[in-house]
Specification:
424 residues; alpha/beta; Aspartate Aminotransferase, domain 1; four-stranded mixed β-sheet; binds pyridoxal-5'-phosphate
Length: 424
């Protein structure tokens, strides 16, 4: 399925940028880009399937996929050709107009999410924007039986994005505190605790936001029992249940949506990351006509959201996932990796579903493992001091998964040694 050939590609942009070494690019980066991301680990110039190459020609097996974005890997031929031909045909129209790809994508999203009649889609450009739209939807669920609904509930450990509404839903103090006051009324309650949810939701609650698996918090799944209880509790109180599937949606867990198995119909779902196969696309799906009607004409909008190229990219991604048996591949390779991890010395816990995998090691060596992995030609991520996250392209092969599993004991040994040395 994946294409591993390292074809040399000279793009028109190369003629504009010219070529430099990785070190030169990084020095130019420090003088020209804002420091919000720290120093990037490498300068990447090219990708094919699950492989990427840096400016110095070094090859990496990409086990992070742009943080759960590159669903079909890099430079997927079908997605690339659909995007290119759409751009060469009609690149952008304002939202005074629509286009066939926008409508077809909305229809497809409603179909794969089993949305009931009256459900609708709003297109954005990112996860935080999709959640920003969902936040406004929640604010519009304002009339409770005994006055205004002002409370919005999210979970400890939640990550919903960095714009002000989404940041208010995000739990981490270090992200929130510098920007207070944030939009008010958000309460964070303990993770996966049904009693805490039951105690928190009342008739002043507008919405409950949940990630079926918390990705940024180290790949922590909510139980299906919790999701079902959340549906029952929110329905009884007239609060919206909004599922953030920005990281977990679009095949990441081997199903279209991670929440599928819980068998519930939420009031809204947000999507982004894998949806465009690498192209920036976000979406809010509202379930049922009364929820869809909460945002009326003129109450929300965007210039770029739903543009023909972005929606063509997403349509092509969904088509390729469906026609190439990708969901089955995610389930099989994901189970294989989790079994391999569980059998690895020093791995203390393995979490996640499909190809969204978190594992803990028995010491705070995860940042050093990321560096050791890069040196050995693997891209992984450490969302915590002893946690590694894998979110590779959904087309990862057995051979590629085994290559990482075989290298893992060596990466752990190297990271243990460098962490001990740094501590001296
Ligand atoms: N929601 C979840 C669950 C996420 O994981 C992320 C990003 O990591 C976001 C929202 C924000 O998405 P974006 O970075 O596209 O704004």
């Amino acid at each position: 399925m994946s294409t591993n050939e390292a074809a040399v590609v000279e793009t028109p942009a190369d003629a504009i940028t010219g070529h430099s070494s990785g070190a030169d690019w990084l020095s130019r980066y420090s003088s020209s880009l804002m420091g919000v991301f720290g120093t990037p680990q490498r300068v990447l110039v090219r990708g094919a399937g699950c492989l990427v190459w840096d400016a110095d020609g070094k090859e990496y097996l990409d086990l992070l996929g742009g943080i759960a974005v590159n669903a079909l890997g890099h430079a997927h031929p079908f997605v690339t050709s659909v995007i290119s031909s759409q751009l060469a045909t009609l690149g952008h129209v304002s939202n005074f107009f629509t286009s066939p790809t926008q409508i077809a994508l909305a229809e497809k999203l409603l179909a794969i999410s089993n949305a009931p009649t009256g459900s609708k889609v709003f297109f954005a450009n990112s996860g935080t924007e999709a959640n920003e739209a969902a936040f406004k939807l929640a604010r519009r669920n304002s009339d409770g039986p005994h006055g205004k609904r002002t409370k919005i509930i999210a979970l400890e450990g939640a990550f919903h994005g960095r714009t002000m509404g989404a940041l208010a839903l995000t739990a981490k103090e270090a992200y929130r505190t510098p920007f207070e006051p944030l939009p008010g009324g958000v309460v964070h309650i303990p993770f996966d605790d049904i009693d805490a949810l039951r105690a928190a939701v009342d008739d002043s609650t507008a919405a409950v936001f949940l990630e079926p698996i918390q990705g940024e918090a180290g790949v922590r799944p909510l139980s299906a029992e919790y999701l079902r209880a959340a549906r029952e509790i929110t329905s009884a109180a007239g609060a919206l249940l909004i599922l953030d599937e920005v990281q977990t949606g679009i095949g990441r867990t081997g199903k279209w949506l991670a929440s599928e198995d819980a068998g519930i119909v939420p009031d809204a779902i947000t999507l982004a990351k894998g949806l465009g196969g690498g192209f920036p696309v976000g979406a809010l799906i509202t379930f049922g006509s009364s929820t869809s009607a909460l945002l009326a004409a003129g109450q929300h909008g965007t210039t770029f959201g739903g543009n023909p190229v972005a929606t063509a990219a997403a349509l092509a991604t969904l088509h390729a996932i469906e026609s190439q048996g990708v969901l089955q591949n995610v389930r099989t390779i994901g189970a294989h990796i989790r079994a391999g991890l569980a059998a690895t010395d020093a791995v203390t816990e393995v979490r996640g579903e499909g190809l969204l995998i978190g594992f803990d090691v028995n010491a705070d060596i995860a940042p050093a493992m990321v560096t050791a992995a890069l040196d050995a030609g693997f891209i992984v991520n450490s969302p915590g001091p002893h946690t590694i996250r894998l979110a590779p392209p959904l087309i990862l092969t057995f051979e590629q998964a085994d290559r990482f599993l075989a290298a893992l004991p060596g990466l752990i040994a190297t990271a243990t040694a460098t962490t001990a040395k740094d501590a001296q």
